[in-house]
Design a protein that fits this description.
Length: 301
């Protein structure tokens, strides 16, 4: 076989061209760069034989294989990145849908809130009216309840062992304050059931005038003791005990009166008193008496 002509360097032109191509490929690959350079430098002075060409081709093949591996890794990473981007786009799209839904809900709630406020206003107004109606009913009911004991008085501080009937006790107390009352003018009298202390006596008068006279004269009891009315108690420990006459009130009016007395003790009012079950107060010496109709009236003093 005829050998090709060689240049001044002793290397065939076709091989020089191949060497240039190999250099370009080697320069673009990070693999075995030094070994390529050494082999090429040797090829500049020594004519390569088939073994050298074979080794060179093997190195080229190795570089190509490595480059292909790198390309495969890059392709895999690119595919994964593309998949992640696609997934991220789905998440963003889903979030956008949620945001739009929330916007619609917010608009709906914004429209709904005013209607709720309007309804709440109506409910508050109705509740206030119901409260006023209940208070009116309570006052009317209490007025009816108080009308029943209108002719009744309570007598406090008289022990049970005085040894005489309750009608006679009432007549003696009335006589002590300067009012003549016969037992026939008392419809009924009895002791009230109280858990503590001396049980008071309640007496219902047949005539309202007799009841009013006794109650008006009660201020004279400040100088009267138990022994004054019942001499048999002169030598007992209760001899100096005072006797009191009170209006017979409903539970609601009793609470009102207790509260009014507390206000007087706190100097928030000047005085308070009862008249036929009605509670009156006075806030100043020159002020006009005011009737209290409810507990709220007293609380506002």
């Amino acid at each position: 076989m005829k050998r090709n002509a060689v240049s001044g360097t002793g290397v065939a032109p076709d091989f020089k061209q191949a060497r240039g191509d190999i250099l370009s490929m080697a320069a673009s690959s990070p693999l075995n760069e030094e070994s390529f350079q050494e082999e090429i430098e040797e090829s500049d002075t020594v004519e390569p034989n088939l073994k050298d060409i074979h080794n060179l081709l093997k190195n080229i093949q190795s570089a190509i294989t490595a480059m292909q591996g790198n390309i495969a890794v890059l392709a895999k990473d690119n595919n994964k990145l593309s998949s992640d981007v696609a997934e991220l786009r789905k998440v963003i799209a889903k979030n956008n849908d949620e945001v739009e839904k929330l916007k619609k809900d917010l608009v709906s709630q914004t429209k709904y809130v005013p209607s709720l406020e309007l309804e709440l206003g109506r409910v508050k107004k109705a509740s206030k009216q119901q409260k006023n109606d209940i208070e009116d009913l309570q006052e009317n009911l209490d007025e009816l309840e108080q009308y029943t004991p209108k002719n009744s008085l309570e007598f406090h501080g008289i022990p049970e062992d005085v040894g005489i009937p309750t009608d006679e006790i009432v007549c003696k107390v009335a006589q002590a304050v300067g009012v003549e009352v016969e037992s026939e003018k008392i419809e009924i009298s009895h002791r009230l059931n109280r858990k503590k202390g001396i049980k008071p006596i309640i007496a219902k008068f047949a005539n309202h005038k007799d009841k009013a006279k006794c109650y008006k004269a009660r201020i004279r009891l400040k100088d009267v003791t138990l022994s004054t009315i019942f001499p048999t108690y002169l030598g007992t420990s209760l001899a100096d005990q005072r006797v009191f006459i009170n209006e017979n009130l409903t539970a609601y009016r009793s609470e009102m009166m207790k509260l009014a007395i507390e206000k007087r003790r706190e100097d928030k009012i000047l005085s308070t008193w009862l008249l036929d079950g009605k509670i009156f107060i006075k806030t100043s010496p020159s002020g006009r008496p005011r009737q209290m109709f409810s507990i709220d009236d007293v609380k506002q003093l």
